[in-house]
Specification:
Blueprint: E1 2-3, E2 8-11, H1 17-24, H2 27-33, H3 41-54, E3 56-62, E4 65-76, E5 81-88, H4 98-113, E6 118-124, H5 128-136, E7 140-151, E8 154-164, H6 165-176
Parallel strand pairs: 5-6
Antiparallel strand pairs: 1-2, 2-3, 3-4, 4-5, 6-8, 7-8
Helix pairs in contact: 1-3, 4-6
Length: about 190
């Protein structure tokens, strides 16, 4: 279990598959994650099993309620780099800082426990909420891959971002001094 200020991250379990299935097929999650086809329950199981073999898949929880998924994959051990993916699948929890808390908690794990040097990701260039949140977590835009996805009748770029250990240390200091309310409603 990985603890954030507002969330906990725990390994994905089989009992989570129906929720993950619903989340991955939600229209806004579907669009933001750039999925191509609807997911079946069997697809979710296969994806989770692959995620376990290739990395560290977690469920994001708020007071024991699952709200999304996050994980690390595509490890390049020699270079101490991996990729991060995440989504909050429960609309009632959007825009309340849970995604940022989950990312900060997982980055802390990646740098402190896994001794990584860099974590990278990509997102759609028109996903302004995600871009702003990732920047607050220390991520820096590295590249813009033009016209990578066709969404709702138009081309959308992909933005590639990364955060290294030093950038995360600065972001964590800002996060630690922010006075965010914890899971137990105490100021930190």
């Amino acid at each position: 279990m990985i603890e954030g200020k507002k969330v906990s991250l725990r390994p994905v379990e089989e009992r989570d598959y129906p929720l993950i299935h619903a989340w991955m097929n939600h229209p806004e999650v579907w669009r933001s994650m750039d999925y191509e086809l609807p997911f079946s329950l069997a697809d979710v199981k296969e994806d989770t099993e692959r995620s376990r073999k290739e990395g560290h898949p977690f469920v994001i929880e708020v007071k024991d309620r699952p709200i999304g998924r996050i994980g690390l994959n595509q490890f390049r051990r020699r270079d101490r780099i991996c990729s991060l993916y995440m989504f909050v699948g429960e609309p009632a929890f959007w825009g309340q800082g849970y995604a940022r808390d989950a990312v900060m908690a997982l980055l802390n794990y990646a740098f402190d426990r896994l001794d990584l040097n860099q974590v990278e990701l990509w997102t759609l260039a028109d996903n302004d909420r995600a871009l702003a949140m990732y920047a607050k977590c220390g991520f820096v835009e590295e590249a813009r891959l033009r016209q990578r996805s066709f969404k709702q009748g138009r081309w959308v770029d992909h933005v590639v971002m990364s955060v290294n250990r030093d950038e995360f240390v600065r972001a964590r200091a800002d996060w630690d001094s922010s006075g965010i309310v914890t899971r137990d409603s105490e100021r930190v």
